[in-house]
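Recap from last week: sequence in, structure out.
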Amino acid sequence: MSFFLLCQVGFWVDFAIMAGVVALPFLILEHIPNGNTAISGNVFAIQMATYTITCLIMSRVVGKSKNILSWARWGVIIFTFSYPFYPFFPYKYAFYLLSAIAFIGMAISWPAFYAWVGTETNEAKRQRNLAFFNIAWSLGFTISPLVAGPLYDIDFRLPYILIFFISILSFIFLLFIQNENSHYNLEENSIKNSENNPNEDETNNLFLYPFWIGVFLANLMSIIPRSTYAEHLKKLVSNNELRFLFEDTVSPVLTGDPATKFSWPSAMMAFTTAGVFLLFAWTYFWKHRISLLIISQGICAITFFLLSETKSILLICLSFAVIGANHGLTFFASTYYSVNNPVLRHGRASINEGLVGLGGVVGSLVFGFLVDKYGVTISYKYITFLVIFVILTELLLFYYLRKKVKLLHDNRKD
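Predicted structure tokens:
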């Protein structure tokens, strides 16, 4: 029952976050004086920066708590009384302040959620639980844009009123979840005193560190279109340039309501993320395969080139879907490796979430500035060079760690 409730919390909290993500760029462009893509990028960057810093601080704190979900409850309360209030304070610096407060709350909550799930000592069950929890929150990400976009087009305040009540509901669910030791029938010190097989942990670390770099890049690539593509899509709609594919005349379906149009690719991104989580819940082919990460990132680099040029809503949705699939692959694997060691799961889960946030900071801040200055067509092409650099870094780190592990094994044999 407790795990089911935690999945409910994951679903509703991320439903609330994504509702804000879809509505926020339009709220900035239409209701803040002189609102532009740079301000939108700054807002997302502040969210991710506070998330990153708080996660890294929490990596030293959460593991010492006897009930890690007590942190999650405080985090959701902080989020509830900040994130829904954007439309009622339509000023640039108010948005910056509310962003910082809301994502401090989320940074307190999410590492605690993952540490709770990672307490499961059976590896197969832990993999499935991790998958189901990831599917739950990603379904929230999938459905939310389809609700928030149309609500915004009716009245810009409606998505945020919905966010407030959803956040209250999430907090109520958290009150009924057992602490991790009671739920998993563990002695209080059993995890602290447990030991992983050193060979298993070395193999785990061989993939953990490259995938930590990968999760940074994956979140960077997913936050860029979420924070910067809305204005570009709005211009396509306003100029009657948006098409289904390559037809000459615009369809009446593709005119007006740009927030609703933006909700379609946003939902596709989250849908493919959830699809990958479901696939990884029941398969093992992805474990200990660096090639999967490299191929996925390479495809994403090509996708951004396509996204910079196309005016087709179907190709835009396809591009968002590819970016979402890469995010699902990388995030699931990095989280799995992060919680695989029961002794270090709290700290590693926080670091993993911190790197997610750091990718968001760099993506929204740097590309918010670039898109505002040069537009999507030029700015998105720079991502190709960034991906090549990151791939080389991951490969160098992986081969260095593999050589190190081989030396340790050889020394043990001697």
